[in-house]
Design goal:
TIM Barrel, Rossmann fold, eight-stranded parallel β-barrel, six-stranded mixed beta sheet, elongated
Length: 475
């Protein structure tokens, strides 16, 4: 099995320190003469002059198809001319029933040798499946496009009032079982870009519209980038191809993008620290991969056992420090650790931050004080609930009921890992906010990129998460 598409893209981004995707759009008015040969020559010159600045090339198929068989031959030659270490995205916006999609996949990935394809989501998941069959090949799903007419359908409200493009983004998260699905979201609408990033935090975004279409580069990057300054690529074609010096134009755009990425250096540094902790958790056996029967009866390909932390005092201190940035943003009087797994973690956090700790008992004592909540507190004080994991949220509600029954106010829950099983949404509907040091999905992405787990292990966890999340979330 070859390298996954997005791992290859990330490697290229790191190699050239660029999120610039150079568009190869041989518009007729830009050619020396109206022919397939001229279109090919136009693109070859652009590849040669801008490759040093490009994280990828995006080839617009329509400008070749217009020349018939000669155009198709020229398109193949253009794809082959791109240096091997630079991914090629075929901008064809395909989408049809499954049997036709299989033919589109063979044409794009086998005949032409492209690495990724833009695809229309309108026919649904079964039409996408043949195009996403291999993790080595990427798919960018049209979500919120950069043209003004995108509002005609993409911006229309669905039954719950959310725009249709948000439904596409939500579906894409579930369809991304192999980790090779990204989204196309126009840089011309930063608000939509930010909204999509909120519901699809782990998906890569292709953000067209900078340059001739007037998209605001700074606003788009602010809305779409991951905290580590990645997760998004910016395709630009006419602003580069139409410049007097395309190489200089590409370099200037690359530098502008890098400047915006640089503003996130502080956050990136914190992310590096977080992921160092993630790697330490894996090495300590707190996360294991295999086949595990859960309390619910489901068989999971991953098991998280944070009780092991008590045997690793240095790691426990790292965990305690990881809670601190989230807690610093909250107003509270007491920490409240949920027994049993979170009691050692809560104690470590309390010691690290010099904050008082209470905990709700699982069983109320029938002797002595008969306290439901242990520790010193006053009624009306605010407690933030500390736990190790969040899945469906059931244990959180039990603990919150004990704390509130004793007169404490609870608004926030902080965990080390959100298993993304619907707990955050369920808590939110009840008026509580869940904060997590890690989301399980981002951990899987990180470990796969690092090579700590293989693609099949990552895919198995993603498929499991996609299957259990709806079941854990009430209708």
């Amino acid at each position: 099995m070859g390298e996954p598409f997005f791992a290859r893209l990330q490697r290229r981004i790191e190699q050239v320190e660029s999120l610039l995707c150079v568009g190869l759009d041989p518009h007729p008015e830009m050619l020396t003469n109206p022919s397939a040969a001229a279109a090919r020559a136009f693109c070859l010159r652009l590849i040669a002059s801008t490759a040093q600045h490009a994280c990828a090339f995006k080839v617009n198929v329509a400008f070749f198809e217009v020349w018939g068989a000669d155009g198709w031959a020229a398109l193949k030659q253009v794809v082959e001319a791109v240096p091997e270490d630079i991914p090629v995205i075929l901008d064809a916006k395909r989408g049809d029933i499954a049997s036709t999609a299989e033919a589109y996949a063979r044409a794009a990935f086998e005949t032409l040798g492209a690495d990724a394809l833009t695809v229309n989501p309108y026919l649904g998941g079964d039409a996408l499946a043949p195009l996403m069959d291999s993790a080595e090949k990427g798919v960018f799903l049209l979500c919120k496009t950069s043209n003004p007419g995108s509002e005609d359908l993409q911006g229309q409200p669905a039954a719950d009032g959310a725009p249709f493009y948000m439904k596409v983004a939500q579906k894409a998260v579930r369809w991304n079982a192999r980790g090779n699905l990204g989204l196309v979201v126009g840089a011309t609408d930063p608000a939509a870009l930010a909204a999509v990033r909120e519901v699809a935090p782990e998906l890569w975004i292709l953000a067209p519209g900078v340059g001739a279409q007037g998209g605001d580069l700074r606003a788009a990057l602010e809305a779409g980038l991951w905290e580590d300054g990645s997760g998004m690529i910016v395709p630009v074609s006419r602003a580069i191809a139409g410049a007097q010096d395309p190489a200089q134009a590409a370099g200037a755009l690359r530098e502008s993008i890098q400047e915006q990425r640089g503003k996130r250096v502080g956050r990136a540094a914190r992310l590096d620290t977080r992921f160092a902790l993630a790697d330490a958790l894996l090495e300590a056996g707190c996360i294991q991969f295999g086949a595990f029967v859960l309390k619910s009866g489901l068989t999971s390909p991953i098991y998280i056992d944070l009780r092991r932390l008590i045997g690793y005092p240095r790691l426990m201190r790292q965990v305690a420090r990881a809670y601190a940035p989230l807690l610093e943003l909250l107003q509270y009087d007491r920490l409240a650790a949920l027994p049993y797994a979170a009691l050692p973690i809560g104690t470590a956090v309390a010691l690290a931050l010099d904050q008082p700790l209470v905990y709700p008992r699982k069983e109320i004592k029938v002797y002595g004080t008969r306290a439901a909540v242990e520790g010193d507190f006053k009624k009306g004080e605010t407690a933030v609930l500390i736990d190790d994991l969040a899945t469906g949220g059931e244990s959180k509600f039990e603990a919150i009921a004990r704390l509130e029954g004793a007169g404490l106010v609870v608004r926030d829950v902080v965990v080390l890992i959100d298993r993304e099983g619907g707990g955050k949404e369920r808590l939110a509907r009840a008026g509580y906010r869940l904060h997590a040091v890690f989301r399980l999905g981002e951990l899987i992405d990180h470990w796969e990129r690092r090579g700590s787990i293989n693609a099949s292990q990552a895919a198995a966890v993603r498929e499991f998460l996609a299957g259990v999340a709806p079941a854990q979330s009430p209708a």
